[in-house]
Structures are given as structure tokens and as C-alpha cells.
Design a protein that fits this description.
Blueprint: E1 2-7, H1 14-25, E2 29-31, H2 32-42, H3 45-54, H4 62-72, E3 81-85, H5 91-103, E4 108-115, H6 118-126, E5 128-131, E6 137-139, E7 158-159, H7 166-180, H8 182-188, E8 193-197, H9 202-213
Parallel strand pairs: 1-3, 1-4, 2-3, 4-8
Antiparallel strand pairs: 5-6, 5-7
Helix pairs in contact: 1-9, 2-3, 4-5
The structure holds BIS(adenosine)-5'-pentaphosphate, magnesium ion and zinc ion (ZN).
């Protein structure tokens, strides 16, 4: 069972690396951020609630995200493993995940802690662009598409995320330090955490991750 958690601040590259791991090891990427944005787009009740927190750079209530992940982990495609991207993000979420995985006879094998200098994060997030159709991610400077504003993979247009505004990014970083960083210590206690230096070349970081996972 290849259960993986990607831990790291906003802009650490969780989504970028999760997509590669998912393709290489044929296990699904479970991004609570992507799932919440989908709910916002679809205008569901949960989406409307989540948006009020996301627009402020705050965390969506634990019971909401725990419910999403509990349901998602029961899907058949999680049989071989899964990559949690952006969950858990609080101690109560980590404790709930322990209970859910035990109940479903699943196991977290590795927690990858992506470490990036704080000053890099703002530039990464301000320059991020995402494909509206396939979700591929780019950066205007660090990972530009071949044609400006168009996805290399599917040709659809690229947009900037609503919460990638400077003031919202600052709030997300504060909340990361307050609520999510304590998880590093939580997982140190399990012996499953491995830190990954996540600055520099995207391919080189991915190669380090593969070495850890193999
Ligand atoms: P979420 O969508 O998870 O956002 P986040 O944690 O803020 O992280 P990001 O997606 O912004 O960054 P990333 O680490 O994925 O980096 P990426 O690969 O894109 O959550 C959004 C919101 O939803 C939260 O604020 C909260 O409100 C809510 N939410 C979600 N989960 C929740 C939970 N569990 N509990 C409560 N609330 C929850 O890379 C960033 C940019 O950098 C890209 O442009 C990329 O191309 C570039 N890049 C990547 N790697 C490199 C590199 N090595 N060098 C240079 N550039 C790079
Ligand atoms: Mg992400
Ligand atoms: Zn695309």
C-alpha cells in the first residue's frame, strides 16, 4: 500500500510533484484544495461555505475536509495507494486520518516534507498559472508554457488562482505556520517522515522523491 502524504507550505510544489508521482506510480492524487475549488465552481452548498474561508486564505473547517477525504479514500482507485496533497493540515485532521486509514485497512507509508525558503514561496505563487481544462500547472518564469497563456498539453487557456493575491498568500503562510507546521513534529513521532529539499530544478526534486519512494 503506497499511501503518501505531501506536506509543505503554499507554493512548495505539492501539486507539481504529486502529478508526477501519480503518473509514474499509477496512484491517484488527492488534493483537498482541487476538490474544494471544484465544489466552489459547481456552486454546491459545501463549495459556497468553503469559498468564504478560501478567499481569506483561511482553513476550511476540519469536519468538512475530513468528510471529503474519508469518502475519497473508499473509491476503488485507492486500492494500490494514494497521494494526499494538502491534507492533513491540522493535528485534528491527522488524527482523523489515522482513524480512517485504520478503519479502511490502509496505511500511510511515507510523509514527504517539502522544504523551501520562505522568500521563494511568494514569487512562485504570484507567477503560477493553471490550465482551466486539464489542471496542468505553469509558472510565468520558472516553468513557462510554450505559448503564452495556453496549456502545452491541451491548448486551453491558463488562469491565475483567486487566492494567489499577495494579501491572501500572506494569510495562507501565517495559517500554515500556525496550524500545519506542527504536523512535522507529529509525523516525526511515527518515523515515517522524510524531508525533501524542494528548491531548485523541478526534475531534480522529483528524482530525489523517487529515490525515497523506491
Ligand atoms: P491548496 O490548493 O492545497 O493550496 P496550498 O496549500 O496553498 O498550496 P498550493 O496549491 O498553493 O501550492 P503547491 O504546494 O501545490 O505548489 P505548486 O505545485 O502549485 O489549498 C487552497 C485552500 O483550500 C487553502 O488555503 C484552504 O482554504 C483550503 N484547503 C485545502 N486543503 C485543506 C485542508 N486539508 N484543510 C483546510 N482547508 C483546506 O507550485 C506553485 C508554483 O511554483 C507553480 O507555479 C509551479 O509551477 C512553481 N514551482 C513548483 N516547483 C518549483 C520549483 N522547484 N522551482 C520553481 N518553481 C516551482
Ligand atoms: Mg497545490
Ligand atoms: Zn491543459
Amino acid at each position: 500500500m503506497m499511501g503518501i502524504i505531501l506536506l509543505g507550505p503554499p507554493g512548495a510544489g505539492k501539486g507539481t510533484q504529486a502529478k508526477r508521482i501519480s503518473a509514474a506510480f499509477s496512484i491517484p492524487q488527492i488534493s483537498t484544495g482541487d476538490m474544494l475549488r471544484e465544489a466552489v465552481k459547481n456552486g454546491t452548498e459545501m463549495g459556497r461555505l468553503a469559498k468564504t474561508y478560501m478567499d481569506q486564505g483561511g482553513l476550511v473547517p476540519d469536519e468538512v475536509v475530513i468528510g471529503i477525504v474519508r469518502d475519497r479514500l473508499q473509491a476503488p482507485d485507492c486500492g494500490k495507494g494514494f497521494i494526499l496533497d494538502g491534507f492533513p493540515r491540522t493535528i485534528p485532521q491527522a488524527e482523523a486520518l489515522d482513524r480512517v486509514t485504520a478503519a479502511l485497512a490502509k496505511e500511510i507509508r511515507t510523509v514527504l516534507s517539502l522544504e523551501v525558503d520562505e522568500k521563494e514561496l511568494m514569487e512562485r505563487l504570484c507567477g503560477r498559472r493553471t490550465c482551466t481544462a486539464c489542471g496542468a500547472m505553469y509558472h510565468v518564469r520558472f516553468n513557462p508554457p510554450k505559448a503564452e497563456g495556453k496549456c502545452d498539453k491541451c491548448g486551453s487557456s491558463l488562469i491565475q488562482r483567486d487566492d494567489d493575491k499577495e494579501e491572501t498568500i500572506l494569510a495562507r503562510l501565517v495559517n500554515y505556520r500556525k496550524s500545519t507546521e506542527p504536523l512535522i513534529r507529529y509525523y516525526k513521532g511515527t518515523g515515517k517522515i522524510r524531508s525533501v529539499r524542494a528548491s531548485g530544478d523541478i526534475d531534480a526534486i522529483y528524482a530525489d522523491i523517487v529515490k525515497i519512494l523506491q
